[in-house]
Amino acid sequence: MVDSMPNGDKDLNSVIEHSLTQFASNPCLGTREMQMEETTDEEGNVKQVPKYGKYKWKTYEEVYTMAKYLARSFVNHDLCPEVNGGGEKMRMIGLYSKNREEWCITDIACVISSVVTIPLYDTLGDNSVSFIVNQTEMTTIVMGKDKIDHIIKLKTSGKIDSVQNIVLMDPTSENEKEKLRQADLKVLDYTFLLEDGEKNRVKLAKPTHKTIFTICYTSGTTGDPKGVISNHHNYAAVMGGLLKTGFDIKENDTHYSYLPLAHVFERAAHWGLLSQGGKIGYYVGDVTKIKEDCGVLKPTIFCSVPRLLNRFYDLMQDGINKLTGFKRKLLNRGVKIKMNNLMKNGSVKDSIYDALVFNKFKKILGSKVRIIITGSAPIGGEVLSFLKIAFSCRVFEAYGQTETTAGLTITNYKDGTSGHVGGVFPHNEIKLVDVPEMDYTSQDIIEGEKQPRGEICCRGFNTFIGYFKAPDKTAETKDEDGWVHTGDIGQILPNGALRIIDRKKNIFKLAQGEYIAAEKLEIAFSKLEIVQQIFIYGDSLQSYLVAVIVPEKSAVEKWAAETGKDIKGFSDEEYQQFINGEEFKNYFDTLIKETRKNEKLSGLEVPKAIFCTSEEFSVENDLLTPTFKLKRNEAKKKYLNEIKAMYKGEKLQGE
């Protein structure tokens, strides 16, 4: 079992020092140059808008030197005093901003001085921020100036009393600094700390592999977030395991960073690139500019989530549907040949058709991408297979949790099949535990073959230490033998791959006593081209399921056109009326029946009533976590009137 980097490093300080000796002059972190430009809006008002240029790079030596200076100042100014971390003394600091080079430099500064980082998601609300701050008793937050108003609001309302110091990553006006001071907060400039650290010679405490690296709070689909404690060894083992799977990061690789650094997926990707001398280019802070950023950066490694990859897929399909004549025949021929080769031997390249057709698709990500990895949620097999041949590169699907330091299983890029999350990483082992109340056992026979099913449990060098100041919750998740119980239900396929089929925690009972697994059904119905997002709800006082669905608008428009209707010019109100009209719902019913047959669902597992909405579930409207998982409680609250209407006004549980 892999327990370290290929060179034997087990702590991140050794990792970054090793990179410094090998890649000192290599570009390391890059940010697009920005200047303000005047523009006039439709009403004739003159505004200042940012204009972005090329990426400007800092070398490994420059990054390490800045991190060293910053670390010295953290110690010199007592910005991270020791606190009792549930029986263990530790020093910690908060990180609260979008992805940017200062975030990574601060992370490295904490690594080389044995300070524990507490990342705060850029999109966290008041309750989550105050809970994390109060539980960790952090005194200092390093942040972007866009967070000033939020922090002042929390501080003046008595919700984050422990916070005393704010380190501002951005140049900030004296007026804004004074507002922070009036809220009883000491203000320190990032540049001042760098200059001060260059002068002082404070000795830094180097970590060992057992030193706590970070406390990464789960985004909390229900209840308060939980602080997942991970040490240096957890991350070193995961990176060492990843490098043995065909995910071969190279010195000349470029990674595009837009997924939140507060999440373990992006954090592990960062340290993977840093360990091999690769470079990391940051997004400009606006996800609508991802395509533009990639056009400039031309990344070779792209870490993503299904939500964005599905958008790319839809964009490509729209382009394909507009083709006619010879171009359409040529593309169809290319798709057929490449799909056959993918299934036969895992090949994703074809010199002729790539030059004629598929290189145009590669331009979406800047033309040079060679590795794509997706995680955090399921992705449709059809989508995954098409992305492999469209981008002509290795596409991995990985599965894991914050508690398993991201990596638990990963697909083999040569495997042409889809619909599973691959085999076990070499840094951990898994087992399936029977869940008899859901009829999942190790002896299950599926389509005539033994295919064990049960709750996925993981044990290895990647599993977390425990939840911060929550031993009771730790005991619920990690047993005495070190097995982490994920709450996910898996199935071992005949080829040895793991398929995620259900979720143990999100089950509920209908009035007739039938247990229903909501996430399993949401995964099944999400395979429909016309479903962009779905929330399935069941109530123990009711005998059937209902669903709130966000239809994929391009698919709705396509179906409407096929039935002789042009709805592309509809207003938002007209579109909302259309998707809740009888004709569209009848069409949807036929798709639901097909899904029931294809997925072998029982009648009780099919929603009897649906409500369609044009408003997407998003982080901004608090229906998704920062990692794009559905917040079921919030969704129920938002659509309570619609849910009650689908249940014809009947009383729901708890009323």
Automatic annotation (TrEMBL):
<dbReference type="GO" id="GO:0016020">
    <property type="term" value="C:membrane"/>
</dbReference>
<dbReference type="InterPro" id="IPR042099">
    <property type="entry name" value="ANL_N_sf"/>
</dbReference>
<protein>
    <recommendedName>
        <fullName>AMP-dependent synthetase/ligase domain-containing protein</fullName>
    </recommendedName>
</protein>
<keyword id="KW-0547">Nucleotide-binding</keyword>
<dbReference type="GO" id="GO:0005783">
    <property type="term" value="C:endoplasmic reticulum"/>
</dbReference>
<keyword id="KW-0067">ATP-binding</keyword>
<dbReference type="Pfam" id="PF00501">
    <property type="entry name" value="AMP-binding"/>
</dbReference>
<dbReference type="InterPro" id="IPR020845">
    <property type="entry name" value="AMP-binding_CS"/>
</dbReference>
<feature type="domain" description="AMP-dependent synthetase/ligase">
    <location>
        <begin position="52"/>
        <end position="468"/>
    </location>
</feature>
<dbReference type="GO" id="GO:0004467">
    <property type="term" value="F:long-chain fatty acid-CoA ligase activity"/>
</dbReference>
<dbReference type="InterPro" id="IPR000873">
    <property type="entry name" value="AMP-dep_synth/lig_dom"/>
</dbReference>
<dbReference type="GO" id="GO:0005524">
    <property type="term" value="F:ATP binding"/>
</dbReference>
